Description:
The complex is a heterodimer.
Chain A: E1 2-6, H1 12-21, H2 33-48, E2 58-65, E3 70-78, E4 89-99, E5 104-114, E6 121-128, H3 136-151, E7 159-163, H4 175-179, H5 181-185, H6 189-198, H7 201-205, E8 213-214, H8 220-225, H9 234-243, E9 246-251, E10 258-263, H10 268-272, E11 274-280, E12 291-295, E13 304-308, E14 317-319, H11 321-327, E15 334-339
Chain B: E1 2-5, H1 11-21, H2 32-46, E2 56-62, E3 69-76, E4 87-97, E5 102-112, E6 119-126, H3 140-154, E7 162-166, H4 178-187, H5 192-200, H6 205-210, E8 216-217, H7 223-228, H8 237-245, E9 249-254, E10 261-266, H9 271-275, E11 277-283, E12 296-300, E13 308-311, E14 320-323, H10 325-331, E15 338-343
Parallel strand pairs in B: 6-7, 11-14
Antiparallel strand pairs in B: 1-2, 2-3, 3-6, 4-5, 4-9, 5-8, 7-10, 9-10, 11-15, 12-13, 12-15
Amino acid sequence: xxxxxxxxxxxxxxxxxxxxxxxxxxxxxxxxxxxxxxxxxxxxxxxxxxxxxxxxxxxxxxxxxxxxxxxxxxxxxxxxxxxxxxxxxxxxxxxxxxxxxxxxxxxxxxxxxxxxxxxxxxxxxxxxxxxxxxxxxxxxxxxxxxxxxxxxxxxxxxxxxxxxxxxxxxxxxxxxxxxxxxxxxxxxxxxxxxxxxxxxxxxxxxxxxxxxxxxxxxxxxxxxxxxxxxxxxxxxxxxxxxxxxxxxxxxxxxxxxxxxxxxxxxxxxxxxxxxxxxxxxxxxxxxxxxxxxxxxxxxxxxxxxxxxxxxxxxxxxxxxxxxxxxxxxxxxxxxxxxxxxxxxxxxxxxxxxxxxx
Amino acid sequence: xxxxxxxxxxxxxxxxxxxxxxxxxxxxxxxxxxxxxxxxxxxxxxxxxxxxxxxxxxxxxxxxxxxxxxxxxxxxxxxxxxxxxxxxxxxxxxxxxxxxxxxxxxxxxxxxxxxxxxxxxxxxxxxxxxxxxxxxxxxxxxxxxxxxxxxxxxxxxxxxxxxxxxxxxxxxxxxxxxxxxxxxxxxxxxxxxxxxxxxxxxxxxxxxxxxxxxxxxxxxxxxxxxxxxxxxxxxxxxxxxxxxxxxxxxxxxxxxxxxxxxxxxxxxxxxxxxxxxxxxxxxxxxxxxxxxxxxxxxxxxxxxxxxxxxxxxxxxxxxxxxxxxxxxxxxxxxxxxxxxxxxxxxxx
Lengths: 357, 348
């Protein structure tokens, strides 16, 4: 049995292990014990506080495998991407250079530093034990955060964003960093990424070139990496696009990984989530039904599991006693359910951003 | 040898000069119509019919014995008044962070029109056969370069505060500019020669329309392109040295196409402007002795019929300069007239 729950201090070693095994290493999840300990404490404060508007809160969740008795994954929500500091991205822009005299019109692509994503709620720092890759646990870990946000909308922004790790070559080098950031820092990508995670990414961003960059002056390898996710994250990207996220013009300032955005109201899990009273039935007596994410109605004791979306003719959600216990619900209490499968998840045409972000 | 304003009948000779100048010499394109317009503009400037901010003063070096033109040079009264005048300014941005224990300075090219309204000395060209060698041709290049300071000193009120000179940048053995290949070629659908030609013809609007308007961080340029920044073509080194001796300095401005340096100064600070003096002329019959190497440069004080030439000697303590008949004929002056004289070897 797998369950999503808020992080606890005792999860520290697991978190450290997951931070170390993330491919590629994540800026938002540095393998640094003291930093992780601080993050856990900060997450506990967020879950324990009364909050009516998004701010500097981080909510860290873990995926616990009860049979194995271990933590198999973690994921975070940052209520506001740039709450205390600005959240920096490069925005892909196109300038038109036209000359009547020469009768030419040229599109000149540039990257401009932007703080525009600062107000969005950021889904980040996801790391999953590789043994669970490709299972429903992966989707649960990624999307249980949406089930949480949907219950506590006042704590989060209307706009959600995710920054995917960018393309790295066979040696773990970022061609984009080597063509851009390296000139300004004389340090390699892994080193600066670790620093940004342990200290602050905006410290780094403040030293990045402040004027727009002309793509024509970057190496072809760097240009090819812009907006391209790390190969290990393609599945995750496709799932979030199916959820209703859109690719945006924004990319990461270090590795040019894509930033996707989603308006809450347009995301499948928000639109399809529904409250149902619980009816407890023995597991063998439950009818067959599609899998769904099912979450309880608690803040600090938030739980989310994958179970069958088995509804009685009167609209009650039928749960096994084991699932009911995991969620901490009794017969008659309400739970939030949303189908795990996404509409058009296999359609391979990704939506493309037409809006501002 | 003497300098005088160009006139309509010089058109054939001027075009022949233009053909000899070659790539990177934007101000003298081999285009008859354009050259004729330059001459007309000069004629009008010397007759003071053009407003001071639109004047072109184009001078030629004349070989009186053959009637050939040996070279030319020019002064633009003010640049950037009719069409924009662009440079890159090489600036420094500090990228510094205490937290990162980082302090770096990044060279950056900023697009600039800072020189709008300044005077420009330009278009200096001397035919190879008139460069040194024959003692008759000693210091022809120096005359071309320095007579302009005498002209500006004499007609100081026609000129603005500052003067600049654009120097030709670096080209490789195949005549290609590494700076252009790395930067300009991405933004202009032309090769260097075409772009250069249009600029020379004064058709510069495409530059403003197509060029990158945001600063360029030089680390994004190739090593070869960076090596061109502020460097001159080897043939341009003597001309640059001469301007520097007059007090012109490179302040970080470069040509947007080839990266060559633009040197500049306040006109009042230029050595030739500061040190040239007006002297009264006395003409003696026959031929007088002259310094073996030309040292005293003289220019007349009238706008119409302006002449300049080397003199065999300097003025006496009363400020009187004695000319022999040949010199007087060359400069078209008589006893009692005034000349502006510069001792080109006097320490500044």
